């Protein structure tokens, strides 16, 4: 029938072919992640690595006879998995940008890694399904807050450390000088 006044008979509830989404998992090796989720996952994993590294460092220094060698071994043991996780996150972010994961090897080249990092943080992902799969679902409020707050948190911690560490070293030197001065006087 060619009646232009009939209601359309298309199914309007099914998603369009390009509107398919999926819920990305933090521990997945495949798929796509957007900018905010990339920041949130990367900073969350960095925070976990820092906490675990700090706890193990305190244990190793207190237990071993030669803490320098133990710290080197511990540093390598922590660095290798965190480096692998950074490559996985970069691969997934590059897949969202419709680039191969092999492009993440640019992270090994000085200056190119800075440019690649800025590109991954600021470039918009493919808005529809690409050759690496469907687009991820929209970020939840928690991921947005975490993804945007963690860089600020790390900057504040860095600034506080830059102020506190020299002040503490100055305090320790003055305390030692006062202790020596008290031992000299009868």
UniProtKB/TrEMBL annotation:
Transmembrane segments: 38-62, 68-90, 102-122, 142-168
Entry keywords, A to Z: Membrane, Transmembrane, Transmembrane helix
GO CC entries: plasma membrane
Full protein name: Uncharacterized membrane protein YhaH (DUF805 family)
Matching Pfam families: DUF805 (PF05656)
First and last residue of the signal peptide: none
């Amino acid at each position: 029938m060619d009646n232009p006044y009939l209601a359309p008979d298309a199914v309007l509830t099914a998603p369009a072919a390009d509107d398919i989404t999926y819920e990305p998992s933090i521990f997945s090796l495949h798929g796509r992640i957007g900018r905010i989720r990339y920041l949130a996952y990367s900073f969350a994993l960095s925070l976990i690595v820092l906490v675990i590294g700090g706890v193990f460092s305190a244990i190793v220094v207190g237990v071993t006879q030669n803490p320098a060698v133990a710290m080197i071994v511990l540093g390598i043991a922590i660095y290798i998995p965190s480096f692998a996780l950074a490559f996985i996150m970069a691969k997934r972010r590059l897949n969202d940008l419709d680039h191969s994961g092999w492009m993440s090897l640019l992270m090994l080249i000085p200056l190119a890694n800075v440019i690649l990092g800025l590109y991954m943080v600021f470039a918009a992902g493919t808005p529809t399904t690409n050759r690496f799969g469907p687009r991820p679902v929209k970020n939840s409020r928690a991921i947005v807050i975490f993804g945007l707050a963690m860089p600020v948190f790390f900057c504040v911690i860095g600034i506080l450390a830059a102020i506190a560490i020299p002040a503490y070293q100055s305090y320790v030197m003055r305390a030692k000088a006062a202790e020596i001065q008290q031992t000299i006087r009868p």
